[in-house]
Amino acid sequence: MTKLRDDDLARLWREQPATIRKFVEIRPQYEQLCAEASYILEKRIHSAGIEISSVTSRTKSLRSFAEKLVRKAHREPFDEITDLAGVRVVYLYKADRKAIEEIIEAEFDIIERVDKIEVREPNEFGYGALHYLARVGRKSSGARYDDLRDLVCEIQVRTVLQDAWAIIDHHLAYKQEGDVPKHLIRKLNSLSGLFETADDQFDQIRSEREDYVRAVRGKKSNRGRFLEQELNLDTFREYASWKFKDKPLHYSDTHSLKIFRVAQEHGLKTLSELDRVLQSTRKPRAAAAKDKRTQYAVAEIARALAFAFPDYRKSGPWTDENRARLDKFAHLMPKRDRAG
Q1: How far is the first Cα of the chain from the last one, in angstroms, to the nearest whole number?
Q2: Residues with Cβ < 8 Å from 54, sequence gap 6 or more?
Q3: Residue 241: which residues within 8 A CB-CB, separation 6 or more?
């Protein structure tokens, strides 16, 4: 794509001053439209429990708008240029696309829906995505939306790999097979297929993980069978929720991941080994709890690991107050389990 030169932009200001002035005046409204559309999508997708990578937005710049005027010679640019505001939803698993579609179609008034995979010709490269042209729907009420209802927003829906492909595709600027040097055609076709296969495999891995977690939970009714399982992140989280039923699991996924890694670094390989740590630290944990209760199940396990492994107590990311509390009650550990 040929970039607009400064003298071309100056010429547009001379030849179409009303159009340029109007764009400058209405652009803040499109910025607000991007912000509101992003907010609606993030809120609804989160409420639905759908895992995504990001919701991003952008408002077309003056230079980009002017480039379209030069390249396309639009007669009615504010009717014909439909991507003045754009929002992109990048999600993790292909299986979630239908649910995201339903959210968009419920929250917005849809003008156009195009599935780039379905419409792609056999001689076109790429790994397409879903595109909407939409207006803010009637569900979104209030004065903040009154000035936005007639404005059109482009909404793109892509998996992480579709997004990666689009970035590479844009950089290469190959739109169809005839544009490509012959020695690269086979490689690009193979790469496109690999991206699509990888997306399918991510869905399969998630499905298998969900089956595995259900099987882990199914063993909770039998203490012995449950504790004989290997220690991994999934079993660690299930153990924490089983051991401390009255506490929320963690304050973030990262929280439980960090504490799991502490257990792993100290050589714990099964749930039974972790459970022995919890059993051996009952007295000091109970005494410490009188001073300050832990809010989360994973934090209770962190405290147990600190009592069982003095190096973690000394070098872990504790506040001075918490470290002093741990040191205060460490003498209550059974003598056979004391270390350091």
Answers
A1: 67
A2: 88, 89, 90
A3: 249, 297
Handedness of CA 72, 77, 80, 84 (dihedral sign): positive
Domain boundaries, the chain: 6-183, 219-337
Q: Are 273 and 318 in contact (CB under 8 A)?
A: no
Side-chain-side CA neighbours of residue 165 (13 Å) = 25
Q: What share of the chain is helix, strand, coil (3-state, %, to 5)?
A: 65, 10, 25
CATH assignment of 6-183? 3.30.460.10
- pTM recorded for the entire structure: 0.78
Residue 33 pLDDT class (50, 70, 90 cuts):
very high
pLDDT tens, position by position, 116-175:
766 555 444 455 689 999 999 877 777 777 788 889 999 999 999 988 888 777 666 555
Q: Helix (H, G, I), strand (E, B), or coil: what is residue 292?
A: coil
Query: What is the reported pLDDT for 245?
Result: 93
Q: Which residues contact 187 (CB under 8 A, 6 or more apart)?
A: none
Amino acid at 210: E
